[in-house]
């Protein structure tokens, strides 16, 4: 996968990788909405086109933000999991959610922010989200291994 980095600036380089319309949405869906198969992503409320989804999943895998595995009971189905590098974007997603809640509500009154985040520090919320994701992945792995 070839991503053109515009310069050596770390901010610009990150935006070159994750700053498109869909990449962080896919990571958010994996992290918070338990999406893990191509079909899960296609059926989501965000309505990502299948060709764009395929491209983004390949790019995320190439940059090791996600890994692709075969579903144990059906080798035709791929399961996508966040890597540690992908989980490292959790604080970015939390900050974007908080910023959106604070600054976009007047334009989009339907914005929902987690009640859990309202009553926890950002750091504790990030730890909880990551721990919950790992627990789900471990439970899924054990369930499909049987």
Structure description:
- With 146 residues, this protein is mainly alpha-helical.
- 58% of the residues lie in helices and 10% in strands.
- It contains 8 helices and 2 strands; from the N terminus they run H-H-H-H-E-E-H-H-H-H.
- It has helices at 10-18, 23-33, 38-42, 50-62, 84-87, 90-103, 115-118, 122-145; strands at residues 66-71, 74-82.
- It has a two-stranded antiparallel ribbon.
- The longest helix is centred in the C-terminal third of the chain and has 24 residues, at 122-145.
- The chain is globular.
Mean pLDDT: 89
Radius of gyration: 16 Å
Q: Which percent band covers the strand fraction?
A: 5-15%
What is the helix tally?
8
What's the shape?
A: globular
Ends: how far apart?
35 Å
Low-confidence stretches: none
The main β sheet shows up as: 2 strands, antiparallel
Query: Percent range for helical residues?
Result: 55-70%
SSE series? HHHHEEHHHH
**Strands across the major sheet, in which order?**
1-2
Number of beta-strand segments? 2
What are the key terms here?
146 residues, mainly alpha, globular
What is the topological layout?
Elements (H helix, E strand, L loop, with lengths): L9 H9 L4 H11 L4 H5 L7 H13 L3 E6 L2 E9 L1 H4 L2 H14 L11 H4 L3 H24 L1
Antiparallel strand pairs: 1-2
Helix pairs in contact: 6-8
């Amino acid at each position: 996968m070839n991503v053109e980095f515009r310069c050596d600036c770390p901010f610009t380089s990150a935006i070159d990788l994750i700053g498109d319309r869909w990449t962080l949405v896919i990571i958010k869906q994996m992290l918070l909405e338990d999406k893990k198969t191509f079909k899960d992503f296609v059926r989501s409320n965000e309505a990502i086109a299948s060709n764009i989804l395929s491209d983004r999943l390949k790019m995320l895998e190439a940059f090791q933000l996600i890994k692709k595995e075969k579903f144990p009971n059906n080798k035709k189905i791929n399961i996508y999991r966040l890597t540690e590098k992908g989980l490292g974007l959790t604080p970015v997603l939390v900050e974007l959610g908080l910023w959106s809640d604070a600054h976009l509500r007047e334009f989009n009154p339907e914005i929902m922010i987690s009640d859990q985040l309202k009553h926890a520090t950002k750091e504790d919320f990030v730890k909880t989200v990551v721990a919950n994701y790992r627990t789900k992945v471990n439970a899924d792995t054990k369930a499909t291994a049987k």
